[in-house]
């Protein structure tokens, strides 16, 4: 199964109201950031145990671990959760950047060191979300 087929199957598994918004965000991110590597992570570890919600990923960066190992991972992630949608900005050099730069202007969302979580697109300012994603893609930490 291709990445695109896995993403389509993921969309098909999401309740309709959330599916429409996830598909809209996927299209928006894909159009605004063409050429970024596309990922699909099913949320399962090596043993097949569910450890997180599935994620659609865009772009890439290198995660460097304390033991000296590293691996490639997506830079921006999109995931449905029990109460809404999460957008992840991975690999930031400072875990206070998202909150300090975007929390007060994005709308009704919870912003943490790497995640923007909201119930519905109506709750946030989409232009600020795109600004945040742009910031994530442009932030250099490695």
Structural class: alpha+beta
Please give the share of residues in helix. 25-40%
Our Rg estimate from Cα atoms comes to 15 Å
Q: What strand order characterises the main sheet?
A: 1-2-5-6-8-7
Averaging pLDDT over every residue, what do you get? 93
The end-to-end span amounts to 31 Å
Largest sheet: 6 strands, antiparallel
Question: How many separate helices?
Answer: 4
Strand content: 15-25%
H/E element sequence: HHEEEEEEHEEH
Which residues sit in consecutive blocks of at least 5 with pLDDT less than 50?
none
Envelope shape: globular
Give the number of DSSP strands. 8
Description:
- It is a single chain.
- The protein has helices spanning about 5-10, 15-30, 95-100, 125-140; strands at about 40, 55-60, 60-65, 70-75, 75-80, 85-90, 110, 115-120.
- The chain is an alpha+beta fold.
- The strands form two sheets. The protein has a six-stranded antiparallel beta sheet. Strands 3-4 form a two-stranded antiparallel sheet.
- Strand 5 (about 75-80) and strand 6 form a beta hairpin.
- It is globular.
- The mean pLDDT is about 95.
């Amino acid at each position: 199964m291709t990445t695109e087929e896995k993403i389509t199957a993921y969309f098909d598994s999401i309740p309709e109201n959330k599916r429409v918004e996830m598909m809209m965000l996927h299209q928006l991110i894909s159009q605004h950031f063409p050429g970024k590597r596309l990922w699909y992570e099913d949320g399962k570890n090596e043993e097949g145990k569910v450890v997180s919600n599935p994620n659609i990923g865009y772009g890439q960066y290198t995660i460097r671990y304390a033991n000296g190992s590293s691996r490639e991972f997506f830079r921006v992630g999109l995931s449905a959760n029990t109460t809404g949608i999460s957008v992840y900005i991975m690999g930031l050099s400072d875990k206070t950047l998202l909150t300090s730069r975007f929390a007060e202007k994005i709308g009704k969302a919870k912003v943490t060191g790497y995640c923007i979580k909201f119930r519905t697109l109506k709750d946030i300012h989409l232009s600020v979300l795109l600004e945040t994603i742009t910031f994530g893609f442009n932030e250099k930490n490695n």
